[in-house]
Design a protein that fits this description.
The complex is a heterodimer of chains A (354) and B (277).
Chain A lengths: L5 E12 L2 E12 L3 E5 L6 H9 L6 E6 L2 E2 L10 E4 L11 H11 L4 H14 L16 H14 L4 E5 L7 H18 L2 E6 L2 H7 L2 E6 L2 E6 L1 H6 L4 H6 L4 E8 L2 E4 L4 E3 L10 E6 L5 E2 L8 E13 L2 E8 L2 E8 L11 E6 L4 E5 L1
Helix pairs in contact in A: 2-3, 2-4, 3-4
Chain B lengths: L1 H27 L16 H8 L2 H33 L4 H9 L6 H12 L4 H10 L10 H25 L3 H9 L4 H29 L3 H5 L8 H9 L5 H25 L2 H4 L4
Helix pairs in contact in B: 1-12, 2-12, 3-4, 3-7, 3-9, 3-11, 7-9, 8-9, 9-12, 11-12
Chain lengths: 354, 277
């Protein structure tokens, strides 16, 4: 990824509303052809960021550089980029075909060539050609998604932006569309910049992910890097259910005040003083004896939940609730309130700063 | 059946309050000249008199003035409606209120206000004369003055539906069109105008129907330079004491307006532009 040239470079990009910085000094290089996802909770500034990149919101300071050219002052209609909106923003008074052809009509492409392109895009997006004359209002949610994507592709942009287009779609269809979008990314080879509040969605599709919090990019990396080496507690918790134990360093040992004991760390970062020990639920194990793992704790089973292919156990140990997940085939049968011994190896945990 | 029972009071009310007077007018239009009862044998002589006479001039003026009023209102109100819906922000309600307040004063009173403003030695000309020594002819009792009065009176009836129409356009469709390369003009033509069409068409219809029935502007500001059809109808019912002729004129006016409105409604299928197809 890194050897490909950068198509979009952001330098100290900032957007202020009064004294509040919605986007706060973001530096980022996005490679040509990359599927990059910016993920963050609502209010983290990700929508403001993508609107600046698309040219719908002026940047307060910093640079947006597209292929070596500063485009801060280029209006949206002259940027070779295109956005798929959260609301999709289809033109309700137009048919599917007219929606897709819109950018071509604007450019003065003759009707016959427009129609040919629109029909090709319908095929590419797995919509029947008969939809060409159909009103967009008669299309289902998933079909509208595809029409919106087809319209953006008809523009033939250098970069496609996506502003949470799948957030209003039910789970099953969303999963299908996520995969389709990744296929389209592969087929077109275009740069996709996607924003979402779901790290799970980001994981499925992206080459790289940038996690955003309070206007700053807190971590940028491949899905695997973000998953296995979260930089801080925020990123690790954003991934979903994780076990987090507050710890501090005292006398060369990693001490947990709440458990009044020390844990074996996965290796201490330089200058670490205090932070959190993060263990993913699937790395937690049920033990027969405390010697079976480098760290162990005893607790009681509070409840268990069936998550499809996995079973999730909630174990109360002291004031903490630990989450343990096992594949259904490997899940032990436990009684409620049964005493259990849980543990993990140091290499399966991550030490993060606050 | 319960639906009918519940709707019955309203049906009776509309039958008495709306249908009955209309039917009476239609009935009178077929009565002999200058008769006051509805029991004479029906005749077409009133309609024959109208088609042989020169009422078409009044019809023409009424329709022309109404069309011009609608055209000027469209040009004047669209920018204001756009401003109210999108630009003025917190000032929009204030400006809306300023446009609404004149509605609380009777139309005739406002027109007499204009009369005092424009009359010889009145507010405008009197001031010009005493301050600058300028002596100008009054513009009162001219045809443009009638048009000015009509445009002035019907501004709210065009402005408010139009504002509603413009504010119905989702902002993201504008942004999407811009993002897809459209110029500002193309965004207006391809997205804003068609999507605000329901409000615009309602404004057109409302002001056209009102303007075609206007009478006070021509009387007060026009000084009878122009006799609109409504004035003819009034004369027939009052001075001339010829109810059947007045009724026949009224029926013809309703027919003309009705046909035009139906034509427009068919052209701009409101349901379709509102997205209910």
């Amino acid at each position: 990824m890194s050897q490909r040239p950068a198509i979009l470079v952001l330098k100290n990009l900032t957007k202020s509303f009064g004294k509040f910085n919605a986007v706060d000094g973001v530096d980022l290089d996005i490679a040509d052809g990359e599927f990059f996802t910016i993920v963050g909770p609502s209010g983290s500034g990700k929508t403001t960021m993508i609107r600046m990149l698309a040219g719908m919101e002026p940047a307060t300071s910093g640079d947006i550089i597209l292929r070596g050219e500063r485009i801060n002052d280029v209006p949206a209609n002259r940027r070779p980029t295109c956005m798929v909106f959260q609301s999709l923003a289809l033109f309700p008074h137009r048919t599917v075909g007219e929606n897709i052809e819109f950018p071509l009509k604007i450019r003065g492409v003759p009707p016959a060539a427009r129609k040919e392109k629109a029909l090709a895009l319908l095929r590419q997006l797995r919509l029947p050609e008969s939809y060409y004359g159909k009103s967009v209002l008669k299309c289902s949610g998933g079909e509208r998604q595809r029409v919106a994507l087809a319209r953006a592709l008809a523009f033939d942009p250098e970069i496609l932006f996506f502003d949470e287009p799948l957030s209003a779609i039910d789970y099953k269809l969303r999963k299908t569309l996520e995969k389709e979008l990744k296929d389209i990314h592969r087929e077109t080879g275009k740069t996709f910049i996607y924003i979402t509040h779901s790290l799970e969605e980001a994981m499925v599709m992206s080459d790289r992910i940038g996690v955003m919090r309070a206007g700053k990019l807190v971590q940028v990396g491949t899905p695997n890097e973000i998953y296995s080496a979260p930089r801080d507690k925020f990123v690790s918790e954003f991934m979903g259910d994780v076990n987090v134990i507050p710890v501090s360093l005292a006398g060369g040992k990693l001490i947990s005040a709440s458990f009044d004991r020390s844990f074996t760390p996965p290796g201490l970062p330089d200058g670490f003083a205090s932070g959190h020990l993060v263990i993913r639920p699937e790395y937690m194990r049920f033990l027969d004896s405390p010697d079976d793992a480098e760290n162990s704790l005893s607790g009681r089973l509070y409840n268990e939940y069936a998550l499809g292919s996995r079973i999730q156990y909630q174990i109360r140990a002291g004031d903490h609730v630990f989450i343990v997940e096992k594949l259904r085939q490997q899940a032990p049968a436990l009684d409620l309130d049964q005493s259990v011994l849980i543990g993990w190896d140091a290499k399966d945990s991550v030490l993060v700063r606050d | 059946m319960a639906g009918f029972r519940n709707a019955l009071p309203l049906i009776i009310f509309l039958a008495i309050g709306f249908a009955a007077p209309l039917l009476a007018v239609i009935g009178y239009s077929f009565m002999p000249e200058r008769s006051f009862g509805l029991l004479h044998p029906p005749t077409l002589e009133n309609y024959a008199a109208i088609f042989n006479g020169n009422s078409y001039i009044s019809f023409g003026w009424s329709l022309l003035l109404a069309v011009l009023t609608v055209a000027f209102l469209a040009l004047i109100c669209y920018p204001i409606a756009y401003g109210l819906a999108r630009v003025f922000g917190p000032w929009a309600p204030v400006i809306t209120l300023l446009f609404t307040i004149p509605l609380f004063v009777s139309e005739n009173v406002r027109l007499y206000g204009w009369l005092l403003f424009f009359i010889k030695n009145g507010v405008l000309l009197g001031t010009l004369k005493s301050v600058f020594g300028l002596e100008l002819e009054s513009w009162l009792f001219t045809r443009p003055m009638i048009l000015l009065g009509m445009v002035y009176v019907y501004v709210p009836f065009m402005l408010f539906p139009m504002t509603l129409g413009v504010s119905m356009v989702p902002n993201e469709t504008r942004e999407a069109a811009l993002d897809l390369g459209a110029t500002r003009w193309q965004v207006f033509r391809e997205v804003e105008l068609p999507l605000s069409m329901p409000g615009i068409v309602i404004g057109f219809l409302l002001t056209f129907v009102l303007a075609v029935g206007a009478i006070a502007e021509a009387k007060i500001l026009g000084g009878q330079t122009v006799i609109p059809i409504t004035h003819d109808i009034e004369i027939a019912f009052t001075y001339a004491q010829n109810w059947p002729l007045g009724a026949a004129l009224a029926v013809l006016l309703m027919l003309v307006v009705g046909i035009l409105v139906l034509f427009v409604l068919r052209r701009f299928d409101l349901d379709a532009v509102l997205g209910r197809r």
